[in-house]
Amino acid sequence: MDDLIKNYAKHRNDAAKSYSEIPEIPERFIWHAFAGLCDGLAYLMGGRSYASNDVTDYEPEPGWTPVLHRDMKTENVLLRSRSTVGTKRYFYCILSDFGLACDDYPSGHPKEDGWQKSRGKVGTCSYFAPELCWDPYPNDDSERRCFPPGQKHTAKSDLWALAAMMHNLAACEQNSHLDLQARRGMTMQTFCEGVQSHKQLDISTVRRKTPFTGALTDSIKVAGRFDPKKRLHPIAMMEFLKKQIVKTKFTSHPPKGHDHEALPDWATNVHDYHSRPAIDPRQFPQG
User: Fold this and answer.
1) Could you tell me the residue range of the domain that residue 40 belongs to?
2) How many domains does the chain have?
3) Which of 11, 74, 171, 230 has the fewest beta carbons under 10 Å from its own?
4) Mean pLDDT by 10 residues, the chain (287 residues)
């Protein structure tokens, strides 16, 4: 997904220089990515998928131990081709790199992860949720090594990072969720670990010929609320997203007559070997 954003950024910049029409990321694809990745987080939290419209029970699977990803970022989302040759359906959005993932045990539990227990910083600082940042910025080495008192990764901080990812995807710009004008000579590390580096996740300010719907703008705002007490957790967010998608009538893939909502060929590196039928071994001589 990071490459997709870079490719869009390049083509938008080139189009602006040549006074050509500036390409826009299809809103339908953002809904597709948002719902799919949020369901991935909901699965980590509850042990099952909640994406189907037939699902009306949003309780976790009995006996499931919740899992935290702790490194949500666009670089950790893979785009996988469909198995059908020539399909217009969007790529699968695959959440990857679970090297920092851990079971989400409560504080004081004997199996609580060591980094969780010590509040030690893990993950990518530019995607730290606001509650994981120092106000205004870390002052010394001890604050640079640890999250603020009482704070650690949670399912809600994973969801905030997903909202930041969707903001960057919508803006076709890396780190658009950060207030880079406030950096003022600080190292990127120190800057990102301060709460003042963050800005409200509002895609209504993205300049587009076709503005985003209020439903998508609101959905990213809900997932990206600064106050974790007011922010939904991934399972509740899935319930919210499904209602928003029904309201907007955005299906997960472009219907007939909506070829303009397909991703352009230059947006991704498509490898057609993913879509080729299996090779019959009988065509090769044995010997």
Assistant:
1) 2-18+26-54+61-253
2) 1
3) 230
4) 96 96 96 97 98 95 98 96 72 96 97 97 98 96 96 98 98 96 93 96 94 97 98 98 93 85 85 56 66
Residue 230 lies in a domain: yes
* Residue 51 in tokens: 């994406």
Judge whether 199 and 179 are in contact, CB under 8 Å. Answer: yes
Q: Is there a domain that residue 278 lies in?
A: no
What is the CATH classification number for the domain harbouring 230? 1.10.510.10
Query: Hey, what long-range contacts does 233-236 have (CB within 8 A, 24 or more apart)?
Result: 233/45, 233/155, 233/156, 233/159, 234/38, 234/41, 234/42, 234/44, 234/45, 234/155, 234/158, 234/159, 235/42, 235/45, 235/46, 235/50, 235/58, 235/60, 236/58
Residue 277 one-letter amino acid? P
Asked, for residue 97, whether it belongs to a domain, the answer is yes
Cα 176–258–210 angle (5° rounding)?
40
Q: Identify the pLDDT of residue 260.
A: 87
Q: Which amino acid is at 52?
A: S
Q: Which of 1, 57, 62, 58 is closest to 29 using CA atoms?
A: 1
Query: Are residues 202 and 221 in contact, defined by beta-carbon separation less than 8 angstroms?
Result: yes
